[in-house]
Amino acid sequence: MNNSQTQTSQSLTPHASNSCGLRAAPEALLDSEQGRVDRAPLDGLAGKSILNPRQFDRRTIVALSQLAARLETRNVEMDKPLDGKIAITAFFEPSTRTRLSFESAVQRLDGKVLSVPDGQVTGIAKGESLADIGEMFNTYGDVVIMRHPVTESIDEIRRNLQRPLINAGNGSGHHPTQALIDWYALLKWRPELRLPNCPESARIHLGIIGTPGSMRAVKSFLRLSLMFLGAVKKITLISELADPVGLDLTEPIEQSPIPIDITNDAQDVLPHLDVIYVNSIAFLGDSYRNLDSRYKLDGSSQLKSDAVIMHPLARNEELSVELDDTPHNLYFAQAAGAVFLRQALLAAVLDRLNRISDI
User: Fold this and answer.
1) Are 292 and 350 contained in the same domain?
2) ω into residue 314 within 30 of 0, thus cis?
3) For residue range 261-318, what is the model confidence (pLDDT) as tens digits?
4) Of 158, 204, 292, 326, whose CB has the highest number of CB atoms within 10 Å?
5) Under a CB-based contact definition with an 8 Å cutoff, are residues 207 and 273 in contact?
C-alpha cells in the first residue's frame, strides 16, 4: 500500500451521522490546507443564482468543499451567519433529502424558511404562472431554492424573480448542488484529488452507471468531473443506451482531454473502477424510468477492494442493502455532507461569509 492509500484509509472511520459505511473525514481536507479556505472564488458567488454546473470551476468547487469541511468540524451556529435572512424552498416536485437538507442548512445558520412542499398548494393549481410566482417571491424572501419537473421552469420563474435562485433540480436539466455534494464527498475521501498535480497513485478511474442525458444528478456530476483533469484519469459510462450522453454533454465530452469510454457491459469494467457512481431514475419526457436489472450492484459484484460506491439517493433495486455495511459504501457519507455543503453555498450566495469566524 502506498502513502496516499495509507492516508486515505486512515481517514475513513465510523461517523455518528452515518449508520454504516465509510466516514469521509472533513479534517483530511482541512489538514491539506492547514485549515485555510480560499475566499476569493467564494466572494464571487455573492448575489449569484446557482443554475448550472457550468458556473463553477475546479477552484470554486474546492473552496466550497473546504468551507463545508470547516462548517462540519466546528459549531458555526454561534455565529448566526444567516440571521435575518429568509430562504424560500419551493418544491413543485417530490423531495426528501434535497428539501430537508436545504431547510436544515438554513435553520442551523439561524436563517428562516418559508416552505412550499407541494406545488398543488400554490396558485399553480389555479393556473398561475411561474413568472407571477417569481414576482411575489421578490418580497417574501432573500433566496429561492426551487425544484420543478419542467426543464424550462428555471427560465420562466427568472422572468420576474430578482432574488438569487438555486436550482434544486429542473426536469432533465441539472442538479448543481447535488454534484457539489458529490465532489465534497470525493475530496474528503481522497484530498489529493484537489491538486492540479494530483499524484498518479491517487488518480481515479471513474465509472458512471446511468444515462447522463436524462438523469440530472448524473449529468451535473459528470460535468463537474470533467473539470478535474489530472485527478480523474479516465471516465467510463455504463449504460443500456447506445448514446447515453445527450446534447448538453456532447460538446464538453468531445473537448475533454480526459479519456471517456461508453459500454453496456458493467461486469467487464467494474473490477477496474476506483469510484462507481450509480443512479436509477431517468426522467424521460414527463415520467420516470428505472435502470435495467443488469446494472444492479450487490454483494456479488466484482469490485476492487478499495473501490467506493456513490449514489445521490433515493435508491431502488440498482443498489443492494448488502453493500451498506461494507467499506465500499461512500453513499451514506455523501448524503451526510449535504447540509454542510449547502450551508457553505448559502453563506456565499447571501454574502454572509464575513459572519463566520476563523475562515
Assistant:
1) no
2) yes
3) 999 888 899 999 999 999 865 544 444 455 555 778 999 999 999 999 999 998 888 8
4) 204
5) yes
